[in-house]
Every structure is written in C-alpha cells, then in structure tokens.
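During the first year of the project, the team set up a workflow for recording each protein of interest as an amino acid sequence followed immediately by a discrete structure-token representation. This format lets reviewers and collaborators read both layers of information side by side without switching files. As required by the reporting guidelines, we include two representative entries from the current panel. The first entry is reproduced here exactly as it appears in our internal archive.
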Amino acid sequence: MLYTLFRPLLALLDAEDAHRLAIATLRLLPLHGSSRADGPLATSVAGLAFPNPLGMAAGFDKNAEVPDALLGIGFGFAEVGSITPLPQAGNPRPRLFRLTEDQAVINRMGFNNAGAEAAVERLARRRGRPGIVGINIGANKDSLDRIADYATMARLMAPLASYLAVNVSSPNTPGLRALQDEGALTALLDAVLAARGAKGPPVFLKVAPDLEPADIDAIARIALDKRLGGLIVSNTTISRPPLASAHAGEAGGLSGAPLRDLAQQRLRDFRQATGGAIPLVGVGGVACAQDAWARIRAGASLVQLYSAMAFAGPGIARRIVKELEALMRRDGFATIAEAVGSE
C-alpha cells in the first residue's frame, strides 16, 4: 500500500539513488527471518533447509547490509554481494537504468562494493541468527590474479555463509566471463573448493545466459565432477531483444522481463546437460508466481528475483510465495521437490 503511494516519487529519482533509499529503509525496519523451515513450501537443497524456494538474487544487497530484512519481507533466502577482496567504486555513473516500458533494467555497475573487510564485519554480527544467507564472491577489476581473489574470498566468507556463489558471469568486469572457459573454470573451482575447506558451505556457480551449447556441456561436466552444490542459471544478458525504452542502447547487462524466455531456456539446457543430477537455481525475468512455477517445473529447485522488485515493490516476495503454494496445490504436488523438472 505505502509503496503504491510513493512509487511515482521513487520513479523521479535516479535508479541508483532509489536503490540506496530502498536499502536505507530496510536497514531501519525491525525485520528478521524465521528459523522454521517446515511449511508447505519448505524444501531441502544442497543440504540446506529453505522455508520457501524464492530468494533475493545477488546485486540488491551488495554490501550485506540487509539480509535479515530481506528474509523478513518473505524471501526464503537472500544472496548478498557480489563482494570482492578490496573495496572498489565500480564504473562511472550513471550505470543503472530503469526501462519502465519494458519492465527491465540495464546495469553496468562493475562490482561496486565496500570490500571483504566491511562485509565480514557485518556478517559476523549476524552469527546465530536464523535464515539462509548466501554470499556471492567476485574478483577485483584490476587484480593481477583473479583466481587468487576468488580463493581469498572463499576462505574469508566460508565461515559466514550458508552457501558461496562463485560469480564468473557478470558482463561488467572486462574478461571475467572468460573464467567460464573449461580450463580456467576447473582451475578456479579447484582453488575455491580448497580455500573453502572440507567442512565449508556448499559452493554454487553462477553462469551467464549467453552461452553456446558446447559451453553448457563443459560447465555441466565440471559442476558434476567438482560436486558443486548447485548452478545459478543465469546472470544478466548482453543480448538485446527488441526494447521500447529510450535507455535500450545503454551498455551493460539486461535483466527483467525481456530476459525471461532466454533464462528459462538456459535452465532447460542445464537440466538436460546435468541430467537433473545437480540442483539448479532459476533466475532472470521472474516477476510473478507463474514465472517462478514455470522455472520450477522446468528444473529449478530454487528461484531468485531482483529486477521485478524495482517495479512491484517489497510486497512481491510474500505475494509470490502465497500464490506459489496455490499453484503447487492446483497441479497436485504435495511438495516443491516433487514439482522440480516435472514439465
């Protein structure tokens, strides 16, 4: 209700300023997650018990400022980051654009964040609190050894993370997506897994939607070989479907409604390539319960969103979760796990 009243005013703000206001507001609210994971939408993935399968994707809470607030507004889990070893300013502003006519966002943020030290301090303060909080890790733009950066982040964040998400799929750090190549990815994951330790949290890999069939097959083989906790499919796209907004020509990664079909297809591709042997997290263009349900039916054990909240407001999580339960019952499934890959 309040968001509906203030939405016209928020639309007048620069997109990044509006985002910072959202973070500041959530920081002020006394919200926290629940320790219960036994409701009708509860599901277990990679050894973790999720109260519901809907999560906030990385990119919203870059500095791990409001994970508990995100859990408190209805998300079943929150993924913070991407966080890099050293603080970095990211790319010059403006770098975040609302494409309202397309219900889409273009960003070229460039892993702007306050760095590992600040994130560790914040995340250490929430030790013992309930709720699943994943930590999305990245490398500094000017790093001379990006694999070493990921290993450093895995070592620092493993004690604080429910899971680690290795982000090699952002289009806004030059050369980063090259780490999805077979040889580089194998070396990277070996380093991350070693730094995480034998008793560390599960490791997820976040991949781009702009992959060729051979890339998908290679990544699937490596993920299975390394026994990853899951694959997050997918990040933003550098492709450009027809768009109506005046910002359509901006450089960066496109997310939101125009990404939906591509992300859905990539999810199906990875489901086929892995034979359903590794959990998948469906993200990209998820804006309603029907989108989330379609992703689950296509093979996603979990689903994430981000851009849709910029247009629908913070009530989107509870709304999707409520409607998702109704869709599950309508189609005759007793649990989310039963529905995964059932299309």
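The second entry, processed by the same pipeline in the following quarter, appears below.
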Amino acid sequence: MIRQDEALFVAARGGYHTYRIPALVVTLRGTVLAFCEGRRDSARDSGAIDILCRRSTDGGQTWEAPRLAVSGQGDTAGNPAPVVDRRTGIIWLPFCRNLAAGPEPMIIAGQAPRTVWLTWSTDDGVSWVTPREITAQVKQPDWTWYATGPGHSLQLANGRLLIPCDHVVGDGRTAATVRSHVIYSDDAGDTWQIGGTAQPGTNECVAVETVDGRLYLNCRNHRDDPARVYRRAYAWSRDGGLSFAEFGVAAELVEPVCQASAIRYGDAHSSGRSRILFANPASSARERLTVRISEDECQSWGAGRMLHAGPAAYSDLAVAHDGTILCLYECGVHAPYETITLSRLTLDWLTAHQAI
C-alpha cells in the first residue's frame, strides 16, 4: 500500500512563469507521458505558451527533463488532449492555438482567432511532428471559443479516436452558449469529424466508455442549482459519441466549476469487476483534490480519498502497466498553480480509508 508524490513542474523554474493544464497518458510500451502548458511570462490563459512533455520509462518513478512538444512561437499553444492509438502505438496530441494578444474575450467577440491543431509522436514521445491544422474539420462557423480536453482523450473498443472538447456559440459566454462536444476519427487520425454535443452550460469534459458500449461524458457545469451548489454534469451516448442524451447532474460530484478527470481502472471484461476513477477538487473552491471510484459504470461515486487538502485545480488520471494509479494535478500551499504534482497510488491505498 503506497503513495508517492513528486512535483514534476514547479512555477518560476525552467524558464516559465507558471505551469498549468496537466494531461497524462501511458503508451503501449509503458512509457508515461506528462504534458502541461508552460506559460512563459505570466499565469494568464493567453500570452507566450508552449506545450511541454516529460517522459518516464519506469512507471512514473523517475523522469526525463521536460522537452518541447509544441512551440507556441510567441503565441498560445494549449489545451493538450493526448490519446494513444492501441493499434499503431501513435500518440496523438490535439491542441488549440490563439494569438498571444488575442485572449478568450476577444475570441468570443469575434475579434481574434482560435484554431484547432494536431501533432503526433511515433517514438513514444521522444519527438513530435510539425503540427497540422484541423479547424475546418472540427469547428462550426458560429463557434467562437474552442477547447480540446484538456486532459487525456480515449480510444473506443471499435478503434474510434475520440477527443472531448467544448465550445462557445456566438459572441457571448453564458450558461446558454457554452457546451461540451466531442470530435472523432475513424481512420486512424487521418481525418476528423464533429460528434455529439451535450446540454447547454457544460464545458471542459472527460469521457469513459462503459462495458455495455455506451459513452459517458462528465462535464464542468456552469449551471448552478437553486441552492447555488455546483455539481458535475453528465451526458450519455449510445452511438459512440455521435449524439448525446440522458442529461443530468451527478449529485455526489461537487465542484467549484473546474476541470476533472476520469479513467477506467483495469479491464472490467476480464476481471469481472468494474472500477472507474474520477478526480477533481471536491469542494466549492479550488481545493481538496480527491480521487473517487465508481463500481457501477458511472452511475454513482464513492466518497473517495483526498490527495491534497490545500489549493488544487486541474488534474488528469492514468493507470500504469503494473496497475499503479497515476494522478497529475495542479496544487500548492498558497495557490493552486504553484506546482503540477504527480501522485503514484496503489488501489489498496486509495480504498483503505475512503473519506473526505
């Protein structure tokens, strides 16, 4: 029963003011790839921002130095949403670009562009190809703001590559105009299409495929309830993400309007036991980063176990080849964005004292 923590990215070190927006995948060879945005001059969401990657070939115990996955070239490259193709071993990395001086309000007002791009690695994250733009394939004309992920994407059982995303319709960011959606590729990343859209008020999202072949989309929720308590929203798809229905709110999953992560632990078909992990700041503020378990295919969630009691925000989950649970998350003593830290957990540690 273990838990080990290591700060992989520390603010004001390595030539960047702040590191934000973690993403995590494990390759077919077992290499762990930890991504984030390196924000060069400030903590703001725009400016000179690169996408960085660190590699571990021993399940997250030791790490290579950060390397540049995508250069913002003085502008903003962000929202990493990586996925590993099980058939080829290619690591696909969708992301978004905007001008350093063209932040989200200007994008929504139609005064600055926001574009969607794709790079990939065929050598386990050692190098990354020159990115290609896919905006025309995946962005509707009336969508202004757009974001891939952030956090890992997934490959469905049928081979479909599926990227959770979100967008804003028109020139105003309200609970009525912001929505989660997915994009997908059925030809091994060659071309991409827009899939289904979730209910209004949803935003950054994460997807899990259930054992019966449905797709569960868990979303940041900008619609508060009458008691003004925010909880994660969800939507279900029965056609591999082409459309969504059965919208609702997960009563157990309180959130401060923030990003979250979810991933299946192990193979439910072979083990006979379903476990899906979920991580978010389980509070009304960005704090108390907690990992929970669902044992009924996302229908309900346990109390979980807290990783960090203090300030915390975005996170991503992965499972190493030996079954070790990996959680990469923003946290700090005084503010949520002081470090991006990796926790390595055994399932025994996570389930020993499930309480927040």
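For the second entry, the following points were noted during internal review. The radius of gyration is 18 Å. The chain has a mean pLDDT of 96. Both points are flagged for discussion at the upcoming steering committee meeting.
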